Amino acid sequence: MTQFLPPNLLALFAPRDPIPYLPPLEKLPHEKHHNQPYCGIAPYIREFEDPRDAPPPTRAETREERMERKRREKIERRQQEVETELKMWDPHNDPNAQGDAFKTLFVARVNYDTTESKLRREFEVYGPIKRIHMVYSKRSGKPRGYAFIEYEHERDMHSAYKHADGKKIDGRRVLVDVERGRTVKGWRPRRLGGGLGGTRRGGADVNIRHSGRDDTSRYDERDRDRDRERERRERSRERDKERERRRSRSRDRRRRSRSRDKDERRRSRERSKDKDRDRKRRSSRSRERARRERERKEELRGSGGGGDMAEPSEAGDAPPDDGPPGELGPDGPDGPEEKGRDRDRERRRSHRSERERRRDRDRDRDREHKRGERGGERGRDEARGGGGGGQDNGLEGLGNDGRDMYMESEGGDGYLAPENGYLMEAAPE
């Protein structure tokens, strides 16, 4: 199958050329001996240059020296440029310097985003403005940060010179000065080595903050106003914090009070529900006793003994005085079932809280006290009126045993208490 492969693949299986024969070496390299021994550089000294003919060594310039040299060269170059420009500088013949120099105001450190209309609005408060000239860069066309404002009256320029220095426009505090190029002899601009006037002497240690104006008290007053405003804001913040703390404490107290009131209302509702439930239970038991009594009377009447018995007037009338209620039999009102209910009722009464019992005792004591006061007043009235002029209040028939008399007038199974008007069950015998 290999004979069918192309030549380029058959070349991959071709054998390599045989290794050529080389005659063996007589001696190995480490077996050979050097006939000439090693030597130093002494034989070659005569080939070196004579030190007397060599040039003196040159000293290289360090980095600090190079920077200092460049700085000096720059200062010298700048001094030459300033001298050249001073020879050509003439503010009186400047085409851009127009108008009256004594009515012109110089404004520097202006924000680059401030427009001419903004400057006009800010400086028109001191008087009418005749002309505003903002200086722009000749190469880039961007504002340089200063301008010249010419007023119509010299007094307006003086007013702006005194009051507008240090005014903040668009977030930057501007510098205001008079035009000194045409008014002060020998004055030079900053680019020619001059300054911004006698009030701008140098750095922050010797420089006046705003300007050396006559009415410096205005700036002191402004600083005092700023300090007072800052203190007022701090006190206001402290008062707000204290007010917020008091409000939070008041909210907590109201929340706790509402929680206590809610718990008290819930307990009161539960007590009212328990009282209503007990009242309904007692009324149902009273109706059940009356029904059983009527059935018993009807049975007795049907058996032949009902001719001599009186008809009950209503469902709650007392049973006849034939004997105690316990002798009616196991099915009567005092049967085992009724005794169990009485025990449950006594157990529930014993489970009342101490506070309710104390409140009931206080209420009973107050009622007894008031009843005794009314009885004493009634006795005094009868003594004064001879016993015939007293007022009839419906309670004259009640003596010391008035409560017992009232109880005897009701049914035997329950009585209507004169204190609260509730239908109460009689205590078990």
Structure explained in plain terms:
The protein is α+β, with helices and mostly antiparallel strands. The chain is 45% helix and 8% strand. Among the domains are: 94-215, Alpha-Beta Plaits (2-Layer Sandwich), CATH 3.30.70.330; 232-287. A four-stranded antiparallel β-sheet has the order 2-3-1-6. A hairpin with a 6-residue loop joins strand 7 (414-416) and strand 8. It is found in: Nucleus speckle; Nucleus, Nucleoplasm. Component of the spliceosomal U1 snRNP, which is essential for recognition of the pre-mRNA 5' splice-site and the subsequent assembly of the spliceosome. SNRNP70 binds to the loop I region of U1-snRNA.
Please describe the structure with a list of short key phrases separated by commas or semicolons:
four-stranded antiparallel beta sheet; Alpha-Beta Plaits; 429 residues; single chain; alpha+beta; RNA-binding; 8 helices; 8 strands; two-stranded antiparallel sheet
Series of H and E elements: HHEHEEHEEEHHHHEE
Q: Care to count the β-strands?
A: 8
Average pLDDT level: 76
Strand order of the largest sheet: 2-3-1-6
Question: What's the number of helices?
Answer: 8
What's the N-to-C terminus distance?
Answer: 133 Å
What ranges have pLDDT less than 50 throughout 5 or more consecutive residues?
Answer: 305-334, 387-423
Overall structural class, as computed from helix and strand content, comes to alpha+beta
Proportion in β-strands? 5-15%
- Could you tell me the CATH topology label of the domain at 94-215: Alpha-Beta Plaits
Radius of gyration: 63 Å
Described by strand count, sense and barrel closure, the largest sheet is: 4 strands, antiparallel
The portion of residues assigned to helices is: 40-55%
At CATH level 2, the architecture of the domain at 94-215 is: 2-Layer Sandwich
Overall geometry comes to flat
**CATH homology superfamily of the domain at 94-215:** RRM (RNA recognition motif) domain
Mind telling me the CATH class of the domain at 94-215? Alpha Beta
